[in-house]
Amino acid sequence: MPRALITGITGQDGLYLGELLASKGYEVFGLVRGQSNPKVALVERVVPSIQLLEGDLRDLSSLIGVLEVAQPDEVYNLGAISFVGLSWKQAELTGEITGMGVLRVLEALRIHTGGDMGRVRFYQASSSEMFGKVRETPQTEATAFHPRSPYGVAKAFGHYMTVNYRESYGAHASSGILFNHESPRRGHEFVTRKVTRAVARIALGLQETVALGNLDARRDWGFAGDYVDAMWRMLQQDEPDDYVVATGVTHSIRDLLDVAFARAGVEDWSGLVVQDPRFFRPAEVDLLIGDATKARERLGWAPTVGFTELVRMMVDADLEAERVAAGRRD
Ligand code: NAP
Ligand code: G4F
């Protein structure tokens, strides 16, 4: 039975990946931080076989200890401060967790393996946010980085550390440059979930409007369930490498609003959306669209859920959740 350790198990991707690996017969270990982490109960309900271990990406010795218990064949480093907006307000902490955290996991692995790093496969959750002010369109593995946020800068550091440990120590370390991926499990702070939840609440008469920032930004949005499959495929390759994972289709926040409100029967949302300066960013990433040709050709990976289906799935899930929360039967 292969063994896998996932950092960020309580996050959107961690939960999907934990489910996927458990379904493939892996013994799955998840790193959880803090005291009384409220998301632990959800993880235990969704993946009952999972073994949760305490540790923190800011604490090297805790990571070494977790590796000693888990004895993993594969390590997926998904833990991070992942909300770009927060990264300007807590830039140092973002650097510490999202950036230095990667180095600590790699160092823990180097120590744990006695320098024989190639015997444990490592996945780093890199991000299309590293492309930032994009140098070319669509973005590929060869596109230069120009990060626009402390989060993007921290991810670029983690990405290059991953490449460096591959080149310096022969680590089987792969980096997935993943474009935005969403699901009904997405955190409420991200724009897709913020919109689908607000649409559900507005449709049920629980909220009047939704306050947003820049409606013209464009993202390449896919389904998180598809993207964790790409992570697993990367670690099944004989050679480690970097891969862009994306749908190749881009949409604006306005497109997102069109599809989400239409799903709830609202065709004209202009009076329901207010623009609020609090949600504009100091520096914006205007356009992301990825070219996942390499992942398709080498990993046999392709997205299965398109934009409209994804947004409808999220609106439907939020309508159901908000109905239940409000004790409604209609
Ligand atoms: P998420 O839902 O925000 O999950 C982040 C996870 O990191 C949570 O489990 C969180 O634990 C954990 N974490 C935060 N600080 C930690 C620390 N100090 N020590 C240990 N764990 C810590 O993010 P996601 O959407 O699943 O994304 C997974 C990874 O992929 C992240 O690295 C993200 O930056 C990257 N990524 C995401 C996307 C996307 O579109 N979703 C795209 C590209 C890259 P708590 O529950 O304790 O807070
Ligand atoms: O949903 P977002 O917060 O995602 P963002 O910044 O693209 O980051 C996500 O994807 C990255 C991959 O490219 C990941 F690495 C990262 O961890 C995260 O998962 O914002 C998307 C767009 C931005 O242009 C933002 O300015 O939506 C715009 N937006 C407009 N109004 C808003 C809002 N974003 C949020 N969160 N909230 C708003 O009210």
UniProtKB/TrEMBL annotation:
Substrates-to-products reaction catalysed: GDP-alpha-D-mannose = GDP-4-dehydro-alpha-D-rhamnose + H2O
Domain NAD(P)-binding positions: 5-314
SUPFAM superfamilies in the record: NAD(P)-binding Rossmann-fold domains
InterPro entries registered for this protein in UniProt: GDP_Man_deHydtase, NAD(P)-bd_dom, NAD(P)-bd_dom_sf
This enzyme's EC code(s): 4.2.1.47
Gene3D superfamilies to which the protein is assigned, alphabetical: NAD(P)-binding Rossmann-like Domain, UDP-galactose 4-epimerase, domain 1
Enzyme class: lyase
Gene Ontology biological process terms from the UniProt entry: 'de novo' GDP-L-fucose biosynthetic process
UniProt keyword Glycoprotein, yes or no: no
Record keyword Lipid biosynthesis present: no
One Pfam family this sequence matches: GDP_Man_Dehyd
Keyword terms, alphabetized: Lyase, NADP
Domain of life according to the entry: Bacteria
Cofactor: NADP(+)
Record GO terms (molecular function): GDP-mannose 4,6-dehydratase activity; NADP+ binding
Family to which the UniProt record says this protein belongs: Belongs to the NAD(P)-dependent epimerase/dehydratase family. GDP-mannose 4,6-dehydratase subfamily.
Known role: Catalyzes the conversion of GDP-D-mannose to GDP-4-dehydro-6-deoxy-D-mannose.
Protein's UniProt name: GDP-mannose 4,6-dehydratase
Source species of the chain: Vallicoccus soli
Annotated gene: gmd
